[in-house]
Amino acid sequence: MRVRINSGLCQGHGRCYDLAPALFGDDDDGYGQVLGDGTVPRGNEHQARLAVSNCPERAVELIEEDPA
Known about the structure:
By secondary structure, the chain is α+β, with helices and mostly antiparallel strands. It contains 2 helices and 4 strands. The protein has a two-stranded antiparallel ribbon. Strand 2 and strand 3 (about 30-35) form a beta hairpin. The chain is globular, with a radius of gyration of 11 Å. The two termini are about 15 Å apart.
């Protein structure tokens, strides 16, 4: 599972990094950014889903990866 932010949609509300600080941070202008490569560590799935569901612009996306 991975997360990403569509920077064209993000308005900088900060809900992603407030709800999931292990997955998101903010840039110099206060817009959300994914930390690392976007991989959601085990145990952080709930926070990732919270960030997705609480983004007013739906800029946060969750990418479910099929286990190989």
